[in-house]
Write a structure and sequence with these properties.
Elements (H helix, E strand, L loop, with lengths): L3 E4 L9 H11 L4 E6 L11 H10 L4 E6 L4 H10 L3 E5 L6 H10 L3 E6 L17 E5 L14 H13 L7 E5 L7 H7 L3 E4 L1 H4 L4 H16 L1
Parallel strand pairs: 1-8, 2-3, 3-4, 4-5, 5-6, 6-7, 7-8
Catalytic activity: D-ribulose 5-phosphate = D-xylulose 5-phosphate
EC number: 5.1.3.1
GO molecular function, one term: D-ribulose-phosphate 3-epimerase activity
């Protein structure tokens, strides 16, 4: 699998979102990670499908939409219609995750499952044949700028081992939370392919620093 850097727009300047998206494109972002939060599944609120549609108008990069919502099936069609390339659904958010994944794929988008730090891999192994991505949360979901949970490295490593020992090995492993120059190499060595970075990237002083940070993350992930 090819390593990919996915800036999280949760940490971007919402009043200058298009500017930040264009900056990230020039810096070499592979895709964008868009968090949709309803204030119920997690104690925070963020973007709606309209933001996905707005981003689709200003970038050709894939949009990786992470739905931290109750009743995810209610959001799937609006999000795909808005332009989501991949829809990521929390295993903990529905009793019918298999149905939700199938709905995403029936609408023509890629589908992924998200697991919180406390969710065992065994809960989602049966989804391997039908998913395109698994997102391992390396912080508790809901807020940017949190500290990486080191224990999640073993989960990523175990997931990669499972991927290598099954016929259903065509999904990518994504990590989200506390990704920076100290943690990305560890995640890559454990088997991750897609790295969501938010506060680390957007906390800088301008485009030059942003570009250096993306280049540094890529180098560390590939070494």
């Amino acid at each position: 699998m090819t390593n990919k850097i996915a800036p999280s727009i949760l940490s971007a300047d919402i009043m200058n979102l298009e500017k930040d998206v264009k900056m990230a494109e020039r810096a070499g972002a592979d895709l964008f990670h868009v968090d949709i939060m309803d204030g119920h599944f997690v104690p925070n609120m963020s973007f709606s499908p309209s933001v996905v549609a707005g981003m689709k108008r200003v970038t050709d990069k894939p949009l990786d939409v992470h739905m931290m919502v109750d009743n995810p099936d209610d959001f799937i069609k609006p999000v795909v219609d808005a332009g989501a390339d991949t829809v990521l659904i929390h295993a903990e958010s529905t009793n019918h995750i298999y149905r939700s994944i199938e709905l995403v794929k029936s609408l023509g988008a890629k589908a992924g499952v998200v697991i919180n730090p406390g969710t065992p891999l065994e809960n989602v192994k049966y989804l391997f044949p039908i998913i395109d991505q698994i997102l391992v949360m390396t912080v508790n979901p809901g807020f940017g700028g949190q500290k990486f949970i080191p224990g999640m490295l073993k989960k990523i490593q175990r997931l990669d081992q499972l991927r290598q020992t099954t016929d259903d090995d065509n999904f990518e492993i994504e990590v989200d939370g506390g990704v920076n120059e100290q943690t990305i190499k560890q995640c890559s060595e454990a088997g991750a392919d897609i790295f969501v970075a938010g506060s680390y990237l957007f906390a800088g002083e301008g485009e030059e620093e942003f570009s250096k940070k993306i280049a540094n993350l890529r180098k560390l992930a590939e070494d």
